[in-house]
UniProtKB/TrEMBL annotation:
Domain named SnoaL-like: residues: 11-121
Protein name in the entry: SnoaL-like protein
Superkingdom, taxonomy of origin: Bacteria
Entry-linked SUPFAM superfamilies: NTF2-like
Database matches in InterPro entries: NTF2-like_dom_sf, SnoaL-like
Upper classification of the organism: Bacteria, Bacillati, Bacillota, Bacilli, Bacillales
Biological source species: Cohnella phaseoli
TM helices/strands, residue ranges: none
Length: 126
């Protein structure tokens, strides 16, 4: 993993944690592919920066705070995998029964692919 790839990922996580959507988008390739996996199934997928922006704006409304902490980095098949500790506080009630003010804590991983200095793939697993 190059120092530059690590800096791009660190910058993305920092922007995510501070709800800086424009900062996140600045690091993404125009054709970025995003997938969120929950319990082994794809729960969300976006293709392209415009769909990602819409998802990011909607997601930002759900949380009053959120923090991803990177616990490790590894290089696998040209991609960078990070292990994360995730903590968030809900700003709204969710259909699954979670309520505003509830705290979510989980461990997961994210896989990033970076080409030409831009993130082309993000896969989140929880």
């Amino acid at each position: 993993m190059s120092k530059n790839d690590k800096e791009i990922i660190d910058s993305y996580i920092e922007a995510y944690n501070s709800f800086d959507i424009e900062g996140m988008l600045a690091l993404l390739h125009e054709e970025v592919l995003f997938r969120n996996y929950s319990n082994g199934e794809v729960s969300t997928e976006t293709k392209g920066i415009h769909e990602f922006k819409e998802l990011a704006e909607n997601s930002a409304q759900i949380f009053s705070s959120r923090c991803q902490t990177i616990t490790s980095y590894s290089q696998i098949d040209g991609k960078v995998e990070i292990q994360i500790d995730y903590e968030a506080v809900l700003a709204a009630d969710l259909p699954n029964g979670l309520k505003q003010g509830d705290r979510i804590q989980l461990k997961g991983k994210s896989i990033f692919e970076i080409r030409e200095g831009k993130i082309t793939l993000i896969e989140d697993y929880s």
